[in-house]
């Protein structure tokens, strides 16, 4: 992670996000072409391969506006109801200050200190240690925290996690991830539909074509069908890779943004170490897990993992934010008495003149004294 400035990271990630999302729309058109190729391969199997390709291109041109309108309608529907679907999957419910005073006050203080509109605060009943942000605009933004995370983390660590999720909202990561998941969901849906249609109708079609004339066997239908299957598999795989790239590239920046917001890199590292390996939400879909602060679901040798490892994230915070990594932590078991949360995080801070403060993100020294702290979030009152 090159330390060339927080704003540069934000701008660079947003540019890459736009490029990746354009690529996802391209995948939809690729799926349409594969479907046309499959249909022409079955219906005109006696034609040469190049003739079938030409017919499939013609079908794509005809279907192009319909595919575009369909994708836009899908996005509009998801824009309106995605939060309802996520809450139905996770069981998250909105809480008030009276229901969760500790959590609510921490989030409210963070938002007030930087002039950030406060998102909705939601809690889901789960022993897992995790949190995620969702929403596509200020009216929809929400942060969901598990009850397990509330019990296991102290105030400073929870504040760091909330700062991480607020950074995702501020940087536009949440919108990009939701849209990417929506479009990738379209690709996955049609890929499954494609293979169902092929395997359900393919046997009968091929059994009937087995008795066709020798001239039919010389056609390019079989090659066209094989190419269509390969294109669908490629589109499905690329949609997954794009979603993972969107997620992985943002976690480092969200960690750094949390430190900019809280001025406490050690709390962010400690929170990640406690969450490490304990964030699995059994009932959540892979799309929801990709939005979480940590996703323990990993792919082939970390190639398809949606998040960088906690070791890499802690290493970045040590290098660029001056934090201290305690290494993997062992939390008390369920039978042991849980650690009581700190009543006030400010009481644990050393005096302003107790020694040099740790370096801030990107090796920038943090301001001393009790005056306003400048940063990309604006001034924070001491």
Any overview of this molecule?
It is a single chain. The protein is mainly alpha-helical. It has two domains: 13-81 and 175-206 and 219-247, no CATH class; 90-173 and 248-332 and 339-363, 2-Layer Sandwich (Zincin-like), CATH 3.30.2010.10. The protein contains eleven helices and four strands. It has helices at residues 6-43, 49-90, 101-114, 147-152, 155-170, 173-209, 214-217, 221-262, 265-275, 286-289, 310-321; strands spanning 93-94, 120-124, 131-134, 142-146. It starts with 5 loop residues before the first helix and ends in a 61-residue tail after the last helix. 40% of the residues are buried. Residues 203-217, 345-349 and 357-382 have low confidence and may be disordered.
Keywords:
11 helices; Zincin-like; 2 domains; 382 residues; disordered C terminus; 4 strands; four-stranded mixed sheet; mainly alpha
Distance between the termini: 30 Å
Average of per-residue pLDDT values: 78
Structural class: mainly alpha
Q: Name the assembly state.
A: single chain
In the sheet with the most strands, the strands line up as 1-2-4-3
Radius of gyration: 25 Å
Strand content of the residues, in percent? under 5%
Count the E strands. Answer: 4
